[in-house]
UniProtKB/TrEMBL annotation, chain A:
It comes from the Eukaryota. The chain crosses the membrane at residues 130-150, 156-177. Residues 218-330 form the Phospholipid/glycerol acyltransferase domain. Belongs to the 1-acyl-sn-glycerol-3-phosphate acyltransferase family. PANTHER family: GLYCEROL-3-PHOSPHATE ACYLTRANSFERASE 4, ISOFORM D-RELATED (PTHR23063:SF2), PHOSPHOLIPID ACYLTRANSFERASE (PTHR23063). This is Glycerol-3-phosphate O-acyltransferase 3/4. GO terms for biological process: phospholipid biosynthetic process; triglyceride biosynthetic process. One of its GO terms (molecular function) is glycerol-3-phosphate O-acyltransferase activity. It is found in: Membrane. One of its GO terms (cellular component) is endoplasmic reticulum.
TrEMBL record, chain B:
Keywords: Calcium, Repeat. This is Serine/threonine-protein phosphatase 2B regulatory subunit. Pfam families: EF-hand_1 (PF00036), EF-hand_7 (PF13499). One of its GO terms (molecular function) is calcium ion binding. It comes from Acrasis kona. Residues 62-97, 99-134, 142-177 form the EF-hand domain. InterPro entries: CNBL1-10, EF-hand-dom_pair, EF_Hand_1_Ca_BS, EF_hand_dom. Gene3D superfamilies: EF-hand. GO terms for biological process: calcium-mediated signaling.
């Protein structure tokens, strides 16, 4: 289908969700919707696999996706699908001859080959192969042996040992009554455990500038590539997070074990109540004894080449000071993008351990406050631009949750109907001729009777 | 990074220049498309060219006459693979800046299987059949009738084949048809500088 004539079909009303997107973004989104259903080159991405700390990545900002924002995404989807359907109908009118019927199919095929930016931002990048001749291949094989048989077991054991000690000390700590000293000690301990993680991944992290001094009303905001981001930041400056309450072992960990971190846990239904969420967060950030709160406004993991739309929830809080953090991983040594559809968290960690090392740059940017006349959306967009400029990412305005888009049945059915009608119209005259012949045959005996 | 080795692993400056001259793309767009080309050409076998299987996967379709036609559309020299130059030249036709003439010639090649410069009834029938694929249970005789009807309209000199000139006349009667043969390659990047 041709994207060029698309936008002229229906002008967007000012209130429509698609009004936020510019022309190019609309085209790309439309193409993505089409490509998922038509010539599929990218399968629709499935929901995150669940893991013990279920969707910390999503939870930390998904609490700010209220019903209204979810409705926004649904509305957007419906609007885009409407565009496609009405254009399919319109193009069906352009049916002059066989050639004009067949051509769109070809164009759509070619279109499918040219990829779009949205899917690209979630596609893990395959590294360039450098083992293409006999000498380099030998070196590469040597490297593989070292990585898999020497480094990997060492790292794995180190992590295991470190985690066991951490658990042990924690169990001992549980017996100690809560006190300020205990909290401080626990945070130190967590710091050590994050260091264990980073050593086991052979992480070389360069921190630029320093986190801002602790003031009330601060929220740390960062781009998101994997849960590793969390560890990288925890190691440097202990951070608290927002997440969902869980029952069972995870709940036990949340409530008893890492309680000193003062994370904010919500019941699922509580997260719908925006004022409650806002209040709890405000209380947390106002108390400077609490570690600063870390939020990933993208809501999903992105492949560290792009930066998708920041959700505005955090930016709406009154008088909040946003401290942006930009994280950029060096892909020469390892690929830290966690595509939860392709691998589990454990698999992800294993893969990172089998690479050489994890190299990252972390920039702490100047804290910003919302301007007087700035809307939360503009503020979020400004911070997003700051972060992507620093980390050298391509800025996109996609809602990250569209990652999970799958074409609705409505679109599929409409499309089939339209194509069927188009072909019927093409062949229709043949059917009509047959019907007329049959009618004539039926009428003849009657007219004979009449004549008699 | 890998160097030139059999197929293409990197873009040579000279080649880049030539492509900018001969196609409708600019340097940025060609670079971006090269990345995509690499992605497709290395999906099954990293030989720097797209073979039939890789092309099929990129389209997301099963093996069929339609895929064959699409493939030979791009594969100008008929060596069974699509190299980067053929890829870019093919896409250039679909560009917004592609001329009507280019699009005409390109689309004509879809129908003309044996590249003899004419579309005959068999070729058109086979292609129609491949695309329709019995989805509406249309019997072959009716498809034949349809092809005959089209030839009646298009084949003005009555030689049983549609030549390029006759095709051109047919299309100019309905220019919207070819004008719609456009796809956009959104390659605008707004990267900031990483320090």
């Amino acid at each position: 289908m041709r994207a060029s004539g698309l936008l002229s079909v229906t002008p967007s009303t000012p209130m429509s969700p698609a009004a936020h997107l510019n022309d190019e973004q609309k085209k790309s989104l439309i193409k993505r919707v089409q490509s998922v259903d038509g010539f599929r080159i990218t399968a629709p991405l499935e929901k995150n696999q669940t893991l013990p700390f279920v969707g910390i990545a999503d939870a930390t900002s998904s609490f700010f996706t209220t019903d209204k924002e979810q409705v926004w995404t649904d509305d957007l989807r419906v609007e885009i699908e409407d565009h496609i359907i009405s254009r399919l109908r319109a193009s069906g009118q352009d049916s002059f001859n066989i050639f004009s019927d067949l051509l769109p199919v070809v164009v759509e095929g070619v279109d499918a080959v040219v990829k779009d930016s949205f899917t690209e931002s979630f596609r893990p990048r395959a590294p360039d192969a450098w083992n293409w001749n006999i000498f380099l291949f030998f070196t590469w094989t040597l490297g593989v042996i070292v990585r898999y048989l020497v480094l990997f077991p060492m790292r794995f054991l180190f992590l295991l040992l470190g985690t066991l000690i951490f658990i042990l000390v924690n169990l001992i700590l549980l017996l100690v009554p809560p006190s300020k000293g205990k909290d401080a000690f626990f945070r130190k301990l967590l710091n050590v455990w994050s260091s264990v993680w980073l050593y086991s991944l052979s992480a070389v992290i360069k921190y630029h500038n320093a986190p801002p001094p602790r003031r009330p009303n601060q929220i740390f905001v960062s781009n998101h590539t994997s849960l590793i981001d969390f560890i990288v930041l925890t190691e440097h400056c202990g951070v608290a997070t927002v997440g969902q309450k869980h029952p069972g072992l995870v709940g036990f960990l949340q409530n008893k074990v890492i309680a000193p971190l003062r994370n904010i846990w919500f019941e699922r239904f509580e997260s719908r109540d925006r004022s409650l969420v806002a209040k709890r967060i405000k209380d947390h950030i106002n108390d400077t004894t609490n570690p600063p709160l870390l939020i990933f406004p993208e809501g999903v993991c992105v492949n560290n080449e792009y930066c998708v739309m920041f959700k505005k929830g955090v930016f709406e809080i009154d008088d909040v000071e946003i401290c942006p953090i930009a994280i950029k991983y060096n892909k020469t040594f390892s690929d830290p993008y966690w595509s939860s559809k392709d691998e589990s968290f454990v698999g992800h960690i294993m893969r990172l351990m089998k690479s050489w090392c994890l190299v990252a740059d972390v920039w702490f940017l100047e804290p910003e406050k919302k301007g007087k006349k700035e809307s939360p959306i503009d503020f979020a967009s400004r911070i997003q631009k700051m972060i992507s400029a620093k980390a050298g990412l391509v800025n996109l305005s996609w809602d990250g949750y569209l990652k999970y888009y799958a074409p609705s049945d409505r679109l599929r059915n409409e499309r089939q109907k339209i194509v069927a009608n188009q072909l019927k119209r093409r062949f229709g005259h043949l059917f009509v001729e047959e019907e007329e012949e049959q009618k004539e045959k039926k009428e003849e005996p009657q007219s004979d009777k009449k004549n008699e | 990074m890998g160097n030139q080795h059999g197929g293409q692993k990197a873009l040579k400056k000279q080649e880049l220049k030539k492509l900018v001259e001969t196609t409708h793309f600019d340097i940025e767009e060609i670079r971006k498309l090269f990345e995509q080309f690499k992605g497709i050409s290395s999906s099954r076998e990293d030989d720097g060219v797209i073979d039939k299987q890789e092309f099929q996967n990129a389209l997301g379709l099963k093996d069929s006459l339609f895929v064959d036609r699409m493939f030979s559309l791009f594969d100008e020299d008929n060596d069974g693979t699509i190299d980067f130059r053929e890829f870019i030249c093919g896409l250039s036709v679909f560009c917004e800046k592609g001329t009507i003439d280019e699009k005409l010639k390109f689309s004509f090649r879809i129908y003309d299987f044996d590249n003899d410069g004419c579309i005959d009834k068999e070729e058109l029938f086979k292609l129609l059949e491949a695309i329709v694929q019995n989805s509406l249970g249309i019997p072959q005789e009716q498809l034949h009738s349809l092809v005959d009807a089209t030839f009646a309209e298009a084949d003005t000199d009555g030689d049983g084949k549609i030549s390029f000139e006759e095709y051109r006349v047919l299309v100019t009667k309905h220019p919207a048809m070819i004008g719609n043969m456009t796809i956009t390659t959104n390659v605008k990047r707004n990267t900031g500088a990483a320090q």
